[in-house]
Automatic annotation (TrEMBL), chain A:
Keywords on record: Cell membrane, Membrane, Transmembrane, Transmembrane helix, Transport
Transmembrane segments: 12-35, 65-88, 100-125, 131-152, 189-214, 234-256
Protein name: ABC transporter permease
Species of the source: Nocardioides silvaticus
Membrane topology: Multi-pass membrane protein
Domain of life according to the entry: Bacteria
Gene3D superfamilies the UniProt entry points to: MetI-like
Gene Ontology terms: cellular component: plasma membrane
Sequence ranges assigned to domain ABC transmembrane type-1 in this UniProt record: 65-260
Family: Belongs to the binding-protein-dependent transport system permease family. CysTW subfamily.
Any one of the GO BP annotations: transmembrane transport
Cellular location(s): Cell membrane
TrEMBL record, chain B:
Ranges of residues in domain ABC transmembrane type-1: 80-287
Protein name: ABC transporter permease
Highest taxon listed in the record's lineage: Bacteria
Membrane topology: Multi-pass membrane protein
GO cellular component entries: plasma membrane
Family in the record: Belongs to the binding-protein-dependent transport system permease family. CysTW subfamily.
UniProtKB/TrEMBL annotation, chain C:
Name used for this protein in its record: Spermidine/putrescine import ATP-binding protein PotA
Coiled-coil segments on the chain, per record: none
PROSITE patterns found in the cross-reference section: ABC_TRANSPORTER_1, ABC_TRANSPORTER_2
Functional description taken from the UniProt entry: Part of the ABC transporter complex PotABCD involved in spermidine/putrescine import. Responsible for energy coupling to the transport system.
Record note on quaternary structure: The complex is composed of two ATP-binding proteins (PotA), two transmembrane proteins (PotB and PotC) and a solute-binding protein (PotD).
Provenance organism: Nocardioides silvaticus
UniProt lineage: Bacteria, Bacillati, Actinomycetota, Actinomycetes, Propionibacteriales
Molecular function as annotated in GO: ABC-type polyamine transporter activity; ATP binding; ATP hydrolysis activity
Length: 275, 296, 360
């Protein structure tokens, strides 16, 4: 019997290896050809940083990069505040009302992004809000609240209700208990959620596409309009940088909470946690 | 429930009220936000789907069913069915890829488990656009794959782009992670002694897999199917970049109506149609999966 | 003895009632706990002891009744304004703060100046023998150490009463015994009233000055450990603490007839009329199988079961049809294995009439 347990599922291992190759092949190709000194996307003729040099001198693109960073930062801040409030409130208000509010917050997660995007576009135009980076931020916050709420609620479930009572017992008003005890204990989760939302919003194309104004446009929107007209080494360079930035953020989101203490990392939250 | 005495009510009410007030206050702002920016925006979509386009080309509210009537023709129906087909194919292929991958990592990953999962998560959280673009670059007529084929003398070029395969491939590449993670999570929680017991009971790994492992990870499977199907059905980037007019999905049509064609009422009707189809499918799906879960 | 008026009450409960929906969890509870007392609320889970504690702490609003702490009505005072502190079952330590800051938390909220906080925290950590762990995060401490941090964090505020909600439940048996002794000595040293909630009868008996046995939201009996053990006043109290030989019968002429052939004399009992149904109990260790003294009530019987418990041996003696007694005998130094009884041996079970307790 021990023999049967030890046996590796050969087919599954094969599939996994092929999967990882398939997963990384196109990305690595992009990275590789971003360093090509010719315009070709099929033959690598020599190492060069010329496409990166082009990027650095592309004003419009740099504006878009700054715009995306601003949007991501603002949306992260906004959704952290609102999502945490929601998570704390939902923890206490149970029953039908709490369930309803909880369900409404989760709706953006099960709505195709294009629907959310279209709806946001109609709302902003309907109330006469001029499309700009501000409208992008509003839409992204709405979309990201759910992520923050889910992650924070996951962490809250791990903090015994008794901790809050202990704070009250030791002289905290309800508000102080949240500020001095609950929030600090939530910090790892908040950090993880913040990094996750930042990465998601920074990269998000669909919502930004529907809700942005003309100038400056968030980076993904600008990249999209260039991609539509074809493949170019300059986009390889942007793509490589965006991939690196995202990867860094994700790694930070995974590692930082661990470093800050024994909190659950976002990875655990994504995969449903390990107890 | 026995009514508390008047005296007790008077005495305890203020404090309970104060407590509830704080939590209600915490909930008020995010709830108002969601009502303003999400719920009401959905309402506007529904309203505008009954609207019309003015002579100057501006959208206006009205109460007519023109837009829905316009949807009821072969072109749109084919598009709807194609989107559905692509989304289902995406789910099926993702499932075939995700289960073995999740299985290998969860049960045979050893101490590399977390690293492997991170290796999957990192590219998936990186820009969706760039990943689609990467495929476009790789598969284009003068891309790496075709030039390799030519150099090896295997073929003088295959047209990958503008095919259904490319679009579905892009969708799988885009969303397979949403299948892997929930399955991985449920496999991780799986009690391996269950598999041992199954091997004694069912004689053989294959039957054990289908009679024990798969049912035990049903929650992850159901979740993954939903998480892949939803974004796949609404996607337009894959078809836009890897496909062409012949492979367009509902999302492309919606996108065109809003960003190019400027027929917002028609676009709204399309959106509502998509959401209705999705809701019907979701309800049917949830009902089927929950009865199945009850039976066991 | 139960809820006698006290001169210096620390906690007074009057008609305290808690209902959740239609269920009454605490039912018109009256209790007086004296200042400096180690008082235990003992009962099975669901008896309302923790709910009572939570109402005193202020985490749960009473449906009816009043709570006085140090003579002051705190029924509608929020928890942070009550002069009461709690040691939680889960300890509820603040994981983001080190031991020092956990312990000093309450004083800081009260606005005590920094140097006195540091001084008192250091003293308190000495008291609970954690002086060298001041800068550790709680996650680095063992269960027993976490428990002591929780204790120090509550005690440092010198509350009028310290509430302890099964604080030892999460510890293993050996550590629990050690902590019991330590808690008791700390309580004597600081002189603060302890209100201790537990379901563990040994814990309650060995630590408390007084014990209240709770069942279904009411206090069944309240008294010193000796009182409640030796002189239970209710069937529940007798059954919940220790093992007891509970028999039902009818009162007649100074005796309880528990079967057609067995009638147990109970000279001290008053207030029952002939023919009243009563219960009678006698503690297993009060029954002797040998060395009977004159005046003992004796019942002939047969050993049907023996079990060896190390320090003691427990016998089940059949003394009549459907009537058995459990007897606990010390394994004294002079006894050897062959001196113990075996199933089938004929014995005489005897006990002094004053050890017969009649319950109505």
């Amino acid at each position: 019997m021990a023999r049967r347990v030890e046996r590796k599922p050969v087919v599954a291992v094969g599939v996994t290896i092929v999967f990882f190759a398939w997963l990384y092949l196109p990305i690595l190709a992009v990275a590789l050809f971003s360093l090509n000194d010719k315009k070709s996307l099929s033959s690598f003729s020599g190492f060069s940083l010329r496409w990166y040099d082009d990027l650095v001198h592309n004003e419009a693109l740099l504006d878009s990069l700054v715009a995306s960073l601003q949007v991501a930062a603002a949306a992260t801040l906004g959704s952290l505040v609102l999502g945490t409030m929601l998570a704390l409130g939902l923890e206490r208000i149970r029953g039908r009302r709490g369930n309803l509010i909880g369900a409404v917050t989760l709706l953006p997660l099960v709505t195709p992004e294009i629907v959310t995007g279209v709806a946001a576009l109609l709302l902003f135009t309907g109330i006469g809000l001029k499309l700009s980076l501000t409208t992008v931020v509003l839409a992204e916050i709405t979309f990201s609240i759910a992520y923050v709420t889910v992650i924070v609620r996951g962490r809250l479930a791990g903090i015994a209700l008794e901790v809050e009572e202990a704070a009250r017992d030791l002289g905290c008003t309800p508000f102080q208990a949240v500020r001095l005890v609950i929030l600090p204990m939530l910090l790892p989760a908040l950090l993880g959620a913040g990094l996750l939302v930042f990465a998601l919003v920074f990269d998000d194309f669909v919502l930004a596409f529907f809700t942005t104004g003309v100038d400056p446009q968030p980076l993904p929107v600008r990249v999209y309009s260039s991609i539509r007209f074809g493949v170019s080494p300059a986009i390889n360079a942007i793509g490589t940088l965006m991939l690196l930035a995202s990867a860094l953020l994700i790694v930070a989101a995974l590692v930082l909470p661990r470093l800050l203490g024994r909190g659950t990392s976002s990875l655990d939250l994504i995969t449903g946690g390990r107890r | 429930m026995a009514a508390p005495t008047a005296e007790a009510t008077r005495r305890t009410a203020p404090r309970s009220a104060q407590r509830t007030r704080l939590w209600a206050l915490l909930l008020a702002l995010p709830t108002a936000w969601m009502m303003t920016f999400f719920v009401s925006s959905m309402v506007i979509v529904v309203l505008l789907s009954f609207g019309r386009t003015t002579n100057d080309g501006f959208p206006a509210f009205a109460l007519r069913t023109d837009n829905y009537e316009a949807l009821w023709n072969d072109v749109y129906l084919e598009l709807f069915l194609r989107s559905l087909g692509y989304a289902l194919a995406t789910v099926a292929i993702s499932l075939l890829i995700a289960y073995p991958v999740a299985y290998v990592i969860a049960l045979h990953g050893g101490r590399y488990k977390n690293a492997l999962i991170a290796a999957i998560v990192v590219p998936f959280f990186a820009s969706y656009l760039i990943r689609m673009y990467a495929w476009k670059a790789l598969l284009s007529d003068d891309g790496l794959v075709n030039s390799a084929l030519r150099n090896l003398g295997l073929s003088d070029g295959i047209t990958f782009l503008n095919t259904s395969y490319a679009v579905v491939g892009g969708l799988v590449y885009g969303f397979v992670v949403f299948m892997i993670l929930p399955i991985y999570a449920s496999l991780e929680r799986l009690d391996t002694s269950l598999i041992e017991a199954g091997k004694d009971l069912y004689h053989g790994p294959v039957r054990t897999f289908f009679f024990v492992t798969v049912p035990a990870t049903r929650a992850g499977l159901y979740g993954g199917i939903l998480l892949v199907f939803l974004p796949a059905l609404g996607d337009f980037v894959s078809a836009q970049l890897l496909g062409g007019a012949g492979t367009f999905m509902v999302g492309n049509l919606v996108q065109q109506q809003f960003m190019e064609g400027q027929n917002w009422p028609l676009g709204s009707a399309l959106t509502v149609g998509m959401m209705t189809a999705l809701t019907v499918l979701m309800v049917a799906y949830l009902r089927a999966t929950s009865t199945q879960a009850r039976e066991l | 003895m139960s809820s006698a008026p006290t001169t210096n009450p620390s906690v007074t409960l009057r008609g305290l009632t808690k209902r959740f929906g239609g269920t009454t969890v605490v039912d018109h509870l009256d209790l007086d706990i004296e200042s400096g007392e180690f008082f235990s609320l003992l009962g099975p889970s669901g008896c309302g002891k923790t709910t009572t504690l939570r109402m005193i702490a202020g985490f749960s609003d009473p449906t009816e009744g009043t709570i006085l702490v140090g003579g002051e009505d705190v029924t509608s005072t929020p928890p942070h304004k009550r002069d009461v502190n709690t040691v939680f079952q889960s300890y509820a330590l603040f994981e983001h703060l080190d031991v020092r800051r956990n312990v000093g938390f309450g004083l800081r909220r009260k606005g005590v100046d920094r140097s006195s906080i540091d001084k008192r925290v250091a003293e308190m950590l000495e008291l609970v023998e954690l002086g060298d762990r001041a800068k550790d995060k709680p996650s680095r401490l063992s269960g027993g150490q976490r428990q002591r941090v929780a204790l120090a964090r509550a005690l440092i505020n010198q509350p009028k009463v310290l509430l302890l909600d099964e604080p030892l439940a999460a510890l293993d048996l050996k550590l629990r015994r050690a902590m019991q002794a330590e808690l008791k000595s700390i309580q004597r040293e600081v002189g603060i009233t302890f209100l201790f909630v537990t379901h563990d009868q040994d814990e309650a008996l060995s630590m408390s000055d007084r014990v209240a046995i709770m069942c279904d939201g009411v206090v069944e009996q309240c008294g010193t450990p000796e009182d409640v053990y030796e002189r239970p006043t209710s069937v529940f109290a007798a059954g919940f603490i220790g093992t007891s030989n509970l028999m039902n019968g009818l009162w007649s002429d100074g005796c309880v007839s528990v079967s057609p052939t067995v009638s147990i004399p109970a000279p001290g009992h008053q207030g029952s009329a002939d023919g009243d149904p009563v219960s009678v109990t006698v503690r297993p260790e009060k029954i002797w199988l040998t060395e009977h003294t004159p005046g003992m009530f004796r019942l002939p019987g047969t050993i049907v079961e023996t079990s060896y418990h190390g320090a003691t041996t427990q016998y089940v003696v059949s003394v009549g049809p459907d009537l058995t007694l459990t007897v606990l005998e010390q394994n004294l130094p002079r006894m050897r294995a062959e001196d113990r009884w075996s199933p089938g041996d004929r014995v005489e079970a005897g006990w002094l009439p004053e050890h017969t307790v009649v319950l109505r």
